[in-house]
Amino acid sequence: MQSHRKGDLTEAIAIAEVKRRGIPVSVPFGDNERYDLILESEAGLYRVQVKTGTFDGETVRFKGYSIHTNSEGNVHNAYDGDVDYFLVYCHDLETMYLVAEEAVTSNMRLRVEDPEVEQPSINWAADYEFDEQWPPENGTDDATDDREAIIKTLRDRGVDVIDAMDSDAPYDVILRTPADDLLRAAVRRGSVTNGRIRFDTSQTVPGPGDIEYVVVDCAERGEQYLIERASYEHTMSLRVSEPEQTQPSINWAADYEFDEQWPPR
Predict the structure, then answer these.
(1) d(CA 250, CA 237)
(2) Within this chain, do residues 10 and 128 fall inside the same structural domain, yes or no?
(3) Per the count of CB atoms within 10 A, which of 79, 119, 140, 214 is most buried?
(4) The PD(D/E)XK endonuclease domain covers which part of the protein (predicted)?
């Protein structure tokens, strides 16, 4: 099938799948916008670029740029904030993925099968499945609004917490360990969706160079979790129930419970 025809088919399937989930979707008029769709959630509107994912037997690959041709040949154009998300549909797997634009460079691979050689950082396809990622976490969500409540819970645990709210620091708090080590951390609210605890992993969360940990507070489970920031690249979720399908790697929430992780070893 010609690439543009396959692209049209991918977009048609994506619209049908989104509508089947009851999500409001709009298509921009004309060809002047860089996004294909606008999806609506209670938090707002999101510009979405639809991509065809190619399955090579181990990973789903897609391009994080557009291509047009001029007199000099093919020209690659990065999206650079022109879209909010990539909606990737893989025909071979009949699966749809949602990936934040800032998480993608020129190309991205979503791993379905375990690699033959151990890799330091893996973007597991299961973590990006559409139903795991929708609706997107809002960067100004309850994790910020409930900041004081989360800090209070930490202090009730006996943790020495220094609130960095009034500073320009990229972290939210500093956690002092019993050994008097100071650890920079972000605090975020988590929610349970489809058997996983999801939390904000967008660009509002500092990278591993700025913080050592993320504290996730899940009111639904009455639990806090401590996650080392260097343990994930772009996204992470904590599973609280068995998945319907076998997955090569699972981050069980019980392993990250605060009392299991504190103080860090």
Answers:
(1) 9
(2) yes
(3) 214
(4) 1-130, 145-258
Looking at the structure of the chain, the number of domains it has is: 2
pLDDT classification of 143: cutoffs 50, 70, 90: very low
Instruction: Judge if 154 and 79 occupy the same domain.
Output: no
Question: Is the domain of 13 the same as that of 107?
Answer: yes
User: Cα dist. 181→174, 263, 264 in Å?
Assistant: 10, 10, 10
Q: Is residue 189 within 8 Å of 175, Cβ to Cβ? A: no
How would residue 204 be classed by pLDDT, with cut points 50, 70 and 90? low
- Structural element, H or E, at residue 150: helix 147-156
Residue 40: both structure tokens together: 């609506």
Last-in-domain residue among 79, 107, 133: 133
Q: What is the rounded distance in angstroms from the CA atom of residue 248 to the CA atom of residue 253?
A: 16
- Count of C-beta atoms within a 10 Å radius of residue 198: 24
Give the angle 99-63-51 at the CA atoms, nearest 5°: 60
Quick: pLDDT tens for 209-226. 999 999 999 988 999 999
